Prior knowledge:
Layout: E1 10-12, E2 15-17, E3 22-26, E4 33-38, H1 42-59, H2 64-80, H3 82-93, H4 97-117, E5 124-126, E6 133-141, E7 144-148, H5 156-167, E8 172-175, H6 181-193, E9 201-203, H7 209-217, E10 222-228, H8 231-242, E11 247-251, E12 256-260, H9 266-278, E13 288-294, H10 298-309, H11 330-345, E14 349-353, E15 365-368, H12 375-378, E16 385-391, H13 394-402, E17 406-407, E18 409-413, H14 417-426, E19 431-434, E20 449-450, E21 453-454, H15 459-464, E22 467-475
Parallel strand pairs: 7-8, 7-10, 8-9, 10-11, 12-13, 12-18, 13-16, 15-16, 18-19
Antiparallel strand pairs: 1-2, 3-4, 5-6, 6-22, 11-21, 14-15, 17-20
Helix pairs in contact: 2-4, 2-6, 3-4, 3-6, 4-5, 9-10
Amino acid sequence: MSLLTGLEHSLIAGDEYQGKKRFSVLNPANAEQIAYVSQVDEQGVKLALNSALTTFDALKQTSAAQRSEVLQRWFELVIEHKAVLARLLTQEQGKPLKEAMGEVDYAAGFIQWYGEQAKRNYGEIIPANDQQHQLRIVKQGVGVVLGITPWNFPLAMITRKVAPAYAAGCSFILKPSEQTPLSAIALAKLALEAGMQKGAFQVLLTSDSAALIKPLCENPDIRKLTFTGSTKVGATLLSQCAGTIKRTSMELGGNAPFIFFESANIDNAITGLMAAKFRNAGQTCVAANRILIQQSIEQTVLAHLVEAVAQLVVGDGLSEGVDIGPLITVEAKQKAQKLVAEAVEQGAKIVYQGEELDGSFMAPMILTGVTPQMQIAQQEIFAPVVSVMSFSDESQALHIANDVKEGLAAYFYSQDVSQIHRVSMSLEYGMVGINEGMVSNPVAPFGGVKQSGLGREGAHQGLDEYLDIKYLCQKFD
């Protein structure tokens, strides 16, 4: 099977499905068309749903060990095709090839973990009140799952949903981003080659997401929705699922603080910030969005930070030595530029800016004098812009950090053991990096609090999201 052929069509019931309408997939580095993709139609959606329902019934008859073997083989195939997948990812998403290679490993890690975790779907025996009863708990797959994934991590956002769903015995219908559909089809083809049933992982391609998703959210045959994207869209999807009381997992927007306390190891903290801020050109939901620096060390940190940021190379992700690729669209760049311009008008200062580039490339910059009231501090920047605030003490830092509606990830650097305990317990976030700028890991639960979402992905908690609990009460004569 050639991995790079047949990526232009939806994958339904194990076969390519060609719709009549088409849309273009563009390389964000040069705006050139890399594919002309067919859009699924209503008939295709019905076919996919019927196949998913039939396959779910069949999956009930499989063992955890059988599903584990399929996932392990899928993992091996993804690693085997690592170079091809990474290059495809860079072409349609833009991130540097070295980052794309890292994403392939990250994506494969979820498959490997849930291949193992499938065999650990333990139930419970509850001590009964008498000798005539046995009380048991078993866990069963929730049913047909609808997944919606974004463009910023087009491989990893898929595997961390599909792998646990399959491990639990669920069938999965995926709607990937219209900007990065090719990676999704490639992953699904490898899953089929690994032995996954034809209706277990299907991919529907469309540029009209609302028209496709709303009827499926309202369809009672879909038993669960899993979504990664903006808080605004997540709220809309929740309302659409409410009528059928559907299970949902929501990984929504972030507004991560990154705090430099005066006891921090500054060199280590700068290294952590560079990873937390500039990975994927700042286009991650856990990107450091608000940089909080204690006043006593602010000038020292800024000097180190300017030096580090000045070393970053912006360019086509397929070119050697590139650290930052393009933003996903020119419109994304314009949105970030507007946030910067508004902040400057309100008193912020640009203390560093790289050479401006054309198209959707955005040079990294550093802003100081940012205040919590500015929009750049209230919204995800999703661009290589370092937005710096200062604070006087721990109490003020925590107030600024927590005074937003999001609660996905937070980071802080300190060498004061007591402070580490206080701050880690006080930050209102689902994930906290302590002297670490990279928190994502397949074996750890990923997710947020407040308006950053519902549920968790990764770890054993990620498997539970696709399982129903059944209590069995048996009486003996």
